[in-house]
Amino acid sequence: MRFNTSVVFLITCILIISSCRKSYDNYGIQEVVIKNMSDLKVSPTFDYKVTKQVTVTVQLPYTVDYSSINGRLDFYYLDADLQEVIVYTSMADNNGFFNGLIDVPAYLEGIFVRNLAGDHYLAFSGSLKATLEGGVLNYGSFLDTIPPLDTTVTKKAVFYSGMEGTVQPGVSFGRRQKSTTENLIQNGDFSINDFGSIPDWDYPMVVDGRWYETSYISNKIGRVSLAGNPVLRFSSTNYWEYGGVAQLIEATPGNLITLSAEAKSANNNGVSWIYLIPRDASGNALAFYTREVPVVTSIWTTYTISATMPAGTVNCQVLLWNEFYTGRTVYFDNVVVTGPSTDDDGDGVINEEDDYPNDPLRAYDLYYPDNIQFGNFAFEDNWPQTADYDLNDLVVGYQFKQVLNANTALVELYADFSIRAIGASYLNAFGFEMPIPASSVQSVTGNALSGNFIMTSANGTESGQSNAVVFVTDDPRNQLPYPGTGEFVNTSAGAPWVEPDTLHLHITLNSSIALSVIGYAPYNPFIIVNRLRGREIHLVDQMPTALADPALFGTGNDDSDPATGRYYKTVQNLPWALNIPGHFDYPLEQNEIIGGYLKFAPWAMSSGAEYSDWYLPNISGYRDEQYLYPTPE
Ligand SMILES: [Ca+2]
Ligand SMILES: [Ca+2]
Ligand SMILES: [Ca+2]
Ligand SMILES: [Ca+2]
C-alpha cells in the first residue's frame, strides 16, 4: 500500500467529517425524527443517489514525454480499513492531460490519484452540498528542474558507516512492504552495509550498484534500525548544509525512468529532494528532474519522480538530497527505481500500466462500483401501487468490470450478479439496458434464462428491443431457492439463510464502443414484475425500455411524467428502487428502510446534503439493527 504527501490531508478530512457529524449536537439543533416513509417531505427533484459526479482535471508531469504513450490514472479512496478502493480508471491523452466526470460516493471530499509518477490527493472544490464540484491536479507543481542546492565545501568529512543502534519507531502509518518488484537500484532498502564515499553530488561515479554518501558535510549520514528495519538517516548539524546519497544506473535516451522513495522526519521541518540526473558520456549532468519533499512528515510517505531521459544520456544518477540544520533528522527507505518502461504490445500503454500487456486490443479494467466490493440494487415490486419500503423484494448484488482499450473504448463487459434476497411473492425478472443498438452486441453468456418468458435474439439480447437489453435472470428463485420455511427468502430472521449464487455474465461486442457513447455501468437496471412484460420498475428517473407499457405511468401511486423525464417516483417523490454502490444491509420483511437506517430521513429530506453516508456500516448512531436483516458474514 502506497501513501503520499496527502495522507495528512486525508486525516484532516476524516477529522472534518467527524466534526460535521457531531455538529447537530454541538449546536444543540434537534433533528426532527421521522419514523414513517409517509411522513417524509422530499424535494420533487431529489434523485436518491448516494453518489455524485465530479469533474476532475489532471495534468501528468512535464518531465515525461507522453507523445507516444497514454498515462494511466487510477482514482481511489481509502475505506475504514484503509483499503484502496478504486472507483475509476482512465488514460490521459498524448499531452499527459485528462479531464473527465467521475462518479464517487457523495460523502467524499476528495480522491487519491495514482499514476506511475506517483500518488496525490485531489481535494474537491466547492461545498459538500454542491452538485457540481471537482478539482484540478497538476503533477508538475510538485516537480522542478533545478540542480541540487549546495554549500561551499569547507567541512571535514565525518562519515558514518555501520548500524547506529536502534531508534524507537515513530508514528508508522500504512507502511509499504519492502518492494519485491524489479528494482534498478541495488540495496534500495539499505539492508546491506556497503556505502562508498564521494565528496559531493556532482563528482564522477560509476555504475557499480553501490550507494555513495557525500562526505563534505559535518553531519552524520548512516544506517539506523527503526523497529528492526534498516533505514537511512540524515541527522542534524550545527550548520546549514546540504548532503545525501547517490547511486548511478544505466540509462539511454528515451528511457522512461521512475524513482520512488519513502521518507519521514522526526521533527517535521526542512526540505529534502529526490533526483533523477541523466549524465552524458563525459559524466556531465544533462538535466535535473526533481521531486521536492518540502515538509517530510512524521508518517512514512512515498515520493515519486518520473522522467524521460534526454538525448545524450548514457547513465542516470539517483540522488536523495537534504538540507541540514540544527535539529533536523530525516529517514529514507525503500528506494525503488523502475524502467525503462516498455510497451510490448504497442497499444500506447506501458507494461506497468497495462492490465493486458500482451494484448493490443485491451488496456485496462474499469470497475463499478469499484475494484473491491459489490454494490446493491434494492427493488420494491408493487409499482405503480405504493410500496412498503422494505426495499428487499429483490436485492441484487453486482460488480461490473468494463474492459477498455487504450482509446477508452469498451471492448467487452464482465458483470457479476448475486441474488441476495427475495422478499416478495411476485416472480420478478432482473436485467439491464445499455444505450447501444442491440445489434452491436456479439454474445451474452452466463445469464440464467429458464423459460419462455424472455425472448432473446441469437446474440442473447432481448428480442424486440432496439437498444441492447440483457436479462440476468428471469426467475431469481433458481439462484436463491426457497428454504422450505419462512415467508420468503433471506428476509425473515427466523428462516434458514440461503447462500446466494453469483452469476458471471460476459458480454462481447462486434467492435469496441467509445465510453462516451456507451456510458458507465451500472447502465439502466430494472425488474419486470410478476411476468407482466410491460410492468418495469427502474431506478428513479431512469427511462423505461421500449417494451414497457406507457399506459401505466401516472396510474396508482406513480407520478411519472415522461414529458419531463420524471420516472418511477410518487407524488411525494418516493422511489421504488435504490442503488447502493457498496455494502448494504437491507431491511427485514415489511420493515421500512427508514426504521433501520436512522439517517435515511434527514438524508432524503435534505436532498442528499446531510448524511450521504447513511448506508455505511459501523458508524455509531446510524442504524437500528432490529429492523435490518442480519446477513451472515
Ligand atoms: Ca501496452
Ligand atoms: Ca494492452
Ligand atoms: Ca417491499
Ligand atoms: Ca418485501
Number of domains: 3
Give me the Rg, rounded. Answer: 29 Å
- Counting DSSP H or I runs of 4 or more residues, the number of helices is 5
What is the number of E strands? 31
Heterogens: calcium ion
Rounded mean pLDDT is 88
Q: What can be said about the biggest beta sheet?
A: 7 strands, mixed
Helix content: under 10%
Q: Could you give the distance between the termini?
A: 25 Å
Low-confidence stretches: 1-29, 153-180
Strands across the major sheet, in which order?
8-17-16-19-14-11-10
Task: Tell me the strand percentage band.
Answer: 25-35%
Structural class by helix and strand composition: mainly beta
Shape: elongated
What does this entry show, briefly?
Helix content is 5%, strand content 34%. The chain is mostly beta strands.
Structural notes for this entry:
The protein is mainly β and 633 residues long. It has 3 domains: 111 residues, Sandwich (Immunoglobulin-like), CATH 2.60.40; 173 residues, Sandwich (Jelly Rolls); 220 residues, no CATH class. The protein is built from 5 helices and 31 strands. The strands form 6 sheets. Strands 8-17-16-19-14-11-10 form a 7-stranded mixed beta sheet, with no helix packed on it. A hairpin with a 2-residue loop joins strand 12 and strand 13. It is elongated and about 85 Å long. The two termini are 25 Å apart. The structure holds calcium ion (4 copies). The site of one calcium ion has 5 residues, from loops.
